[in-house]
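User: quick one, fold this
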Amino acid sequence: MTETNQQLCLIMGNTRLHWGWFQDDNLIKVEHTPHFKRPNWPELPLYIASVVPTQTDFWLKQATRLITLFDIPLEGIYPTLGIDRVLAVYGAGCQSGFPCLVIDAGTALTFTAVDQQRILVGGAILPGLGLQLRSLSTKTAALPEVILTDKLPTLWAKNTNEAIISGVIYSLLAGIELFINNWLEQFPDSNVLITGGDSDKLLSYFSEFNYQLSQGIIKEENLIFWGMKNVI
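Assistant:
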């Protein structure tokens, strides 16, 4: 197989670098590394997208191409829209069809939606699961750091640790439910996909919170890579 049939895709996130290795139309490897660190992979054409300017400057010297908002064939994109969100929803549409709603459960929890004409309908951003929990422990004098359980917690907690977990998780789940229901009212045949580092945990909680709605959510870890692949 020649190098022209292989590409490396690099997504620069807020906390880590996300690497995808494509051979033809197959994503054969994915790796996540600290900032400024590259996997021990071959030197191949490197395509990058970033939400972290300092990382962009560092990796641009090694890149074949920097992917920007202007490269993504969706209508209605606004200049400050995060490239990670656009690539994920474009990848979702290319893989599963349009319209689609993508829930990205990363450092931030984001909702991004595109209609059947590939026009951006809009979305929302809020602090993600880990960020909310860390902010309470680091920005307050008395609230502790907590450890999440695998099971959905009790709604009405009787101690501080459980109260933090309940407040954060149930608020997130209620928000997810609201956005999905509203979206499906407008586009009942749409796919709903979830991605990101906290997607397993949130989807597990959501399946207890609203089992019926959870059954329609597709989990796909590599939406951004598929978005990049369909651009390059």
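User: anything notable?
Assistant: The helical segments are 53-60, 83-96, 129-138, 160-186, 199-209, 211-214, 223-231.
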